[in-house]
Write a structure and sequence with these properties.
single chain; 139 residues; mainly beta; Metal Binding Protein, Guanine Nucleotide Exchange Factor, Chain A; 1 helix; 5% helix; binds zinc ion
Length: 139
């Protein structure tokens, strides 16, 4: 089964060809600015599992060296991050998924950059940065 998602305006639609989705909450400074929120939740996929249903081009922004965030130029929704892990993993901001699909949340990352006005209240693992080995096969 595939997961479906897209940007706010609907110009960009995608399918994720996976049976399940693993994700992590990220508290890094760049996610905070890019999303305007205390953290973002990244679903982790292999590049070939993310299938675009439009031929339009997303707008890339290199938010840190070699790491690209891609946005819809019409509505500004943040649809994918890649290059951040060094292993080809793509991160899809989970809030762009349609509906409320089941996600396996593996924990929290970049907690060293968490803002004081958001508190982590669960017992999931917390990582200072991107944890070694975190990818589509994690967990
Ligand atoms: Zn859009
Ligand atoms: Zn982040």
């Amino acid at each position: 089964m595939a997961f479906q998602g897209g940007c706010l305006c609907g110009r960009f639609r995608y399918a994720i060809e996976r049976r399940s989705l693993k994700a992590m909450h990220c508290y890094c400074d760049m996610c905070r600015k890019a999303h305007g929120t205390a953290f973002s939740t990244h679903a982790i996929v292999r590049p070939h599992q993310l299938v675009w249903q439009t031929m339009d081009e997303l707008v890339p922004y290199e938010s840190s060296p070699g790491a690209f965030r891609q946005f819809c130029p019409s509505c500004g929704a943040h649809l994918v991050v890649h290059g951040q892990s060094g292993d080809g993993t793509y991160a899809v901001p989970a809030g762009t998924l349609d509906g409320d699909p089941t996600l396996e949340i593996l924990g929290h990352m970049y907690v060293e950059e968490r803002v004081s006005w958001f508190e982590i209240l669960d017992d999931l693992p917390q990582h200072a940065r991107w944890p070694a080995g975190f990818g589509p096969s994690s967990g």
